[in-house]
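Support reply, case 0932

Customer input (verbatim):
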Amino acid sequence: MKPLVRTALASVVALSLLTSGSVVARTQVIRVPAEVRAGVYALDSSHGKITWSVNHLGFSTYYGQFVNVQATLNLDPANPSASSLTATIPLTDVDPNSDGLKAHLQTPDFFDTANHPVATFVSRSVTVDADDANEATVVGDLTLRGVTRSVTMEVEFNQAGPSMGGVYKTGFDGEATIKRSDFGINYALPAVSDEVELHIEGEFVLQQ
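Our regenerated output:
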């Protein structure tokens, strides 16, 4: 068989296998929360982070991220209110796209990471929206700089099913708003907004 023909044939076979595999994967994707596998899930930290934003002097909406977040989700699709979420956010792993600001955020003006290197979140209730089973309200305790306050997070279920490598995942996005002054972070108020918008994205891997 000529090299060109062999190459073309191999490409056709590879495309066929890839296509058939993707069809199988799509049919296994679950978008109905009640059909998701129950169990304990761990956050895939490479696909889970918290993006924050503040109003900066009225000139812009300034964004940054917390990465390397660790979280455990105990999921009970048959009884969502029995589900729970705990998370640990390493405050030293903040990425504001500025080395100077990253260093400043570690000081007592902001996170005071020498004394409080992490923030934690522990859910207290999970309530599924009566009109949309893909949405839920998660209320929990956020501890930051040694101060604990109640935070409400609106969560949307994206999908569940096998991901790359064959692991079973479930994915969510969340939104919350906090006031940094509630946690003793008053630096540059009100020039830099008190309200901090949080966008949470998380892909959780089922633990076998």
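We compared this against your earlier run and they match. Two observations from our side: The longest strand covers residues 39-56. The beta strands are 39-56, 60-66, 70-75, 84-90, 94-95, 118-128, 135-144, 147-162, 168-179, 195-206. Please reopen the case if you see a mismatch on your end.
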